[in-house]
């Protein structure tokens, strides 16, 4: 195992009424929680075979007895602040701890595959930054080899501006970058595969 590579997963603690709130507006909080649990299972399946160090960042509390095996996944609570501040602090900690290729993903992307995550590390060998753009204008993956705080600041999080604004910052900072396939996040009922609505 290459201990220089780190995969960080930002997840929410799966609590009724606190996950997938935009989806819950259409299908109700119970169904939204059920969908979120399936998304977590998918994300674990995608990441479990990837031969890098893995760290789950929880929104509220660390759960040592959940679907993320303790021997495979380190566990921490997300740093305080908005999403940008949380991610910046998580990347800063990773580099301070000696990692040289750090990738972050969420748990909202059903189309994510192990191959795409591995591709991110491969592209980082040749580029400063790698981004996996989402169809809604955000991104499902971000990777870098050292901290670039400008990528996390002055962003309109949870809007369609996140990816274009981030790309603009990458170009302004004159960083080399690579893009991964554009995938869909699950935020609204339209994003769901019909099997989730049975």
TrEMBL record:
Protein's UniProt keywords contain 4Fe-4S: no
Keywords associated with the record: Transferase
NCBIfam families listed in its UniProt record: glyco_like_cofC (TIGR04282)
PANTHER family attached to this UniProt entry: GLYCOSYLTRANSFERASE, SLL1095 PROTEIN
Full protein name: Glycosyltransferase
GO molecular function: transferase activity
Matching InterPro entries: Nucleotide-diphossugar_trans, Trfase_1_rSAM/seldom-assoc
């Amino acid at each position: 195992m290459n201990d220089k590579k780190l995969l960080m997963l930002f997840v929410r603690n799966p609590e009724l009424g606190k996950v997938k709130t935009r989806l819950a507006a259409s299908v109700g909080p119970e169904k939204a929680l059920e969908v979120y649990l399936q998304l977590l299972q998918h994300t674990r399946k995608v990441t479990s075979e990837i031969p890098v160090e893995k760290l789950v960042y929880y929104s509220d509390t660390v759960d040592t007895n959940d679907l993320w095996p303790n021997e495979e996944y380190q566990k921490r609570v997300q740093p305080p602040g908005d999403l940008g501040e949380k991610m910046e602090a998580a990347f800063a900690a990773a580099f301070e701890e000696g990692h040289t290729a750090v990738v972050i993903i969420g748990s909202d992307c059903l189309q994510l595959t192990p191959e795409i995550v591995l591709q991110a590390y491969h592209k980082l060998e040749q580029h400063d930054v790698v981004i996996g753009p989402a169809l809604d204008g955000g991104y499902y993956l971000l990777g870098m080899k050292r901290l670039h705080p400008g990528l996390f600041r002055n962003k309109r999080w949870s809007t369609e501006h996140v990816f274009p604004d981030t790309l603009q910052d990458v170009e302004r900072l004159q960083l080399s970058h690579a893009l991964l396939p554009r995938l869909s996040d699950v935020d609204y009922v339209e994003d769901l595969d019909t099997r989730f609505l049975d």
